[in-house]
Amino acid sequence: TLTATADDKSKTYGDENPALTISYTGFVNGDDETAITQPTASTTADAGSDAGTYAITLNGGAADNYTLVTVNGTLTIEKATLTTTADDKSKTYGEANPAFTITYAGFVNGDDETAVATEPTASTTADETSNVGVYDIVLSGGSANNYSLSTVNGTLIIEKATLTATADDK
Q1: Measured over all CA atoms, what is the biggest interatomic distance in the chain, rounded to whole angstroms?
Q2: Using CA atoms, how far apart are residues 143 and 117, in angstroms rounded to an integer?
Q3: Above pLDDT 90, what percent of the chain?
């Protein structure tokens, strides 16, 4: 009996499939892969396949001196890293906070923001009564089926308001 096992492989979403390989156990008399017609390894996954696990199947193969047993393997597609950055904003003291926005970097396979199932939430401790200064815009949460989200905080700068002092006419 000769066992042909599809080797488990892994890759990142958006990458091409790695070379699929086969390991053998049970050769005798100094035989190796050249003594048989090797099976072919294949998978339904490709560069566009979602993160998850996919079977690596072995098909065909023949051996005159062996009973060939095939064992499937697994291709694991890991999530790609997507960087989410809170865009820097500024405002004047006394004003309401501006709308916070997020920039994404790292999409693959022609994906865009629609690939993000739940956007991260952008928030800050600053409000319209906060003093002049620099405040963090913090990103939290968010999810995507094919991406691991890496968050980068932004900055909210509160600038001085203009105060006009006018002497009263007398």
Answers
A1: 117
A2: 6
A3: 100
User: Residue with structure tokens 């979602």?
Assistant: 50
Order of strands, edge to edge, in the sheet holding 154-159?
89-92, 154-159, 133-140, 121-123
Residues 6+ apart with CB under 8 A from 33: 24
Whole-number average pLDDT of the chain:
96
Whether 132 and 158 have beta carbons less than 8 Å apart is answered as: yes
The per-residue DSSP string of 72-119 comes to -EEEEEEPEEEEEEEPPEEEETTSPPPPP-EEEE---TT--GGGEEEP
Report the DSSP beta bridge partners of residue 73.
56
Band of the pLDDT at 160, cuts 50, 70, 90?
Answer: very high
